[in-house]
Amino acid sequence: MTSPSNNSHSPGPARVPLPGSERAPAPNAAAAAPGAAATGTVEISVYLRRAGDVPDDALPGKSAGPDAAAAYGASAADIDLVTTTLTGLGATVTEADAATRRLRVSGPAGVLAGIFGTTLETVTSTAPDNATVTHRHRTGGLSVPAALDGVITAVLGLDDRPQSRAQFHVSPAKAANVSYSPPQLGTIYGFPQGTDGTGQTVSIIELGGGFDQADLDTYFAGLGITGPTVTAVGVDGAVNVPGGDPQGADGEVLLDVEVVGALANGASVKVYFAPNTDAGFVDAIAQAAHDTPTPAAISISWGQSEDQWTAQARTAMDNAMIDAAVLGITVTAAAGDNGSADGETDGNNHVDFPASSPHALACGGTRLEANPTTGAVQSETVWNDSTSSATGGGVSDTFPLPSWQANITAKAKKGGATAAKGRGVPDVAGVADPETGYNVRVDGTDMVIGGTSAVAPLWAALIARMAQSAGHGFGLIQPALYANLAAGSTTPGFRDITKGSNGAFHATAGWDACTGLGVPVGTALLAALTAG
Hints:
The chain is of the alpha+beta class. It is built from 11 helices and 31 strands.
């Protein structure tokens, strides 16, 4: 595609490259029309550097409070410098927030393209869910005015291609399927008795779809429980809009809300609806992390292969999750539903982001055969129905091995076990196979849904119940989870999953790249986390 001359780099002030902003063309991108320059007013998110570095010992965080986050926000001087510089070049700063280090900036498409040294055009392309979409598009790297070199760390939203896909699968219609209500899974996984999340908040990130309160009322009444208070929060102009498509984004939204609400019905549930763009996704997590009251957990069931993100977007999102950890929030993220390749077709293994961030609790999936009434487990293995219906997992090519994963090995189907060189995914697991999935209600229809997107809210609900009992949040919980990991042994608070594979990797005793440390034994896990 050629760059339209009326939306090209403008002379302006001296500029310097913005590290990590390089962007490849969207899949199957084609100009929507000859010379289709993007026009109209565009609003983007600009992220700034921290005023101070976050020390490692701040990350486990136990409800540290707003003062801790403020220390690591943007400085007033940086905000003033960026605001003055951008407005002087014809942009408008509509919002500035020091805690999240974010400025919302608007202006004509051509003006913003000129400020940041790029060209914007309107194209059609193939989205992560394989739909054909029309959106603004850019390729290559960005630049920033030289005066802002090192101050601006990310410019997100100029290209508003869909960034992520929902990680859920609707169960095939098979009479022999076994399925579970969330409370039944709470029994199977030993969620701590006497807890229901009272006094806690669970935040859920959604990039499309919506929920109808009537669905929730009917669902919770059918379970014989009083549902939680569920509040929709709009981010960057997105709102709660049920689309009437149970197998679309509504399925993701209702699955997440109903799993959290049924397992932690004493908690408050806040659902953050954001555009499915890199800017919308990052902004939603940042807003949820800094909202009041501070949540015990943020549940994320959307993602995309980490290679399909710009480095600046990954870093900005990782920083939002670092903020969450400092504030005592645990971020749970689905590890993906497309096996060890994560849906990529280059013949290599890939892991899903944001689950591959070391600051997210990555949630893998299992196939569970159990008695829904008694909770007795007959078998639990790695979820793997096909390459497009299997738990994600593997070793990150982007994030280095965290210190708390120093002793893990990834057992490949060929070549045996080798020490992981990057962040290992997942950390934990739960049932995800749609053939042994979750009983939910979506757009007036009772159905069974699976996917690792169900495991993220399951773990978020468990975190909320444990936080209720402990009297504090857990922040970055992984160092505590891995503290007693020994090669070939079951970690306290878990039931190990040792059978199955997700394509390239095998389950094995101890941690593995299919189900992590295993599935929870909630009461024992709470005891392990609060001992001493």
